[in-house]
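Notebook, bench 3.
Goal today: get a predicted structure for Putative secologanin synthase from Olea europaea so we can plan the truncation constructs. The sequence was checked against the plasmid map this morning, with no discrepancies at the termini. Length recorded as 419 residues. Pasting the sequence as submitted so the record is complete.
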Amino acid sequence: YGKKAFVWAGLRPKVFIMEPDHMKTIFFNHSTFQKNFKVTNSVVQELITGIIRFEGEEWSKRRTIMSPKFQLEKLKQMIPLVLKCSDQVIIEWKKLVSNSKDGSYTLDVCHDIEELISGVTSQFLFGIDYAKDKEIFHLITQLSELTKQATKVSNLPGSKFLPTETNRKSKRLTKELHQRLYKLMCERKKAIKEGKVVEDNVFNMLLESEIANNQDEMIGHMKGFVFNSHDTTAFVLVWNLILLCIYSEWQDRAREEVFRVFGNRRPDYEGLSQLKVLPMFMNEVLRLYPPLVELSRFLEEEIKLGEYTLPADIQVIMPTILVHRDPEFWGEDANEFKPERFAEGVLKATNGQAVFFPFAWGPRICIGYNMALLQVKLVLADLLRNFSFEISPTYEHAPRVVFTQQPQYGAPIILRNLN
């Protein structure tokens, strides 16, 4: 139907926009094109919480409070923690390979990668020991899985009030999650008051801001950070590992560069900034397998967009996965995996157009995207120094969307230790 089309979702039309100039207008005019939580399924609303739910001045105020914690200078402090969590995975994987009969071990890496990223998130953002507070992350995982079922009936009027097993389970899990987060919040407030806490993390910063006066909002921010790190960063890393297996020549090139830059030392920030192959590879993975396959906005008032007039009370959809694979923007090889298209950076690859937005674009780009990319790059560099990867014959390439794009049947990879 072309780059402008619409479909009916219940009683509300969804208008698809794929033209770069129009998408740029939508991204930058965020006061008119707002997030679509007013029309989102209630189970979905339980997970998508925190700063992303705010608009206008309320959003701007919270973004200003949080942004300093996500700047690169602050994120550099995360590197030792990422390497510590990476060490735990590397040690375990090396044992599995060493104890195998043929020097190789097939493992679905999804669980271990989720644990690794959850460990970083819990310590860096909240200052808590993941090993002692795993249940919070497990509850988030269960709620995430429920959304797959919830979205099947999301367009039925009154669906959130139906006494379905999904709705009942969602309410139970949400209640338990809120109780655990509230307990954590109270314990930390007490520790801060008694002068027992000195860590410089996002959680403590929020507790010392005016946001702490609103208990529900605090819990929403905590829940949002946990979910976004778990479902976004972890699966971006998983897709990178899968593609390193499938395109072994790029695995060899990336590993060669890692050893050339770091030698026998562990990865550090200065060395990461010298890498060229991994950033190209990661961008191509994000192009073909973006975490969010579409971005949507809710239009509260009629507006003119190019030659079209969009009425109020509609959803505007920017289908990330279609834009990222559009031959008009990326050439006839748009569906092929070619990291070299990013050899001169994103700006050159996109000709300065709004056609590459794995973490959104403009003022409301994901606040944690630098954190996510730094973790992925660092862990990949560390793993490449220790293992070679090969895709298992049991792997089935079947991406599915449960909020984020995930491998439906896992990521079984054959691991081998490097000498």
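The domain at 4-417 is CATH 1.10.630.10 (Cytochrome p450). The longest helix spans residues 215-246.
Flagging this for group meeting.
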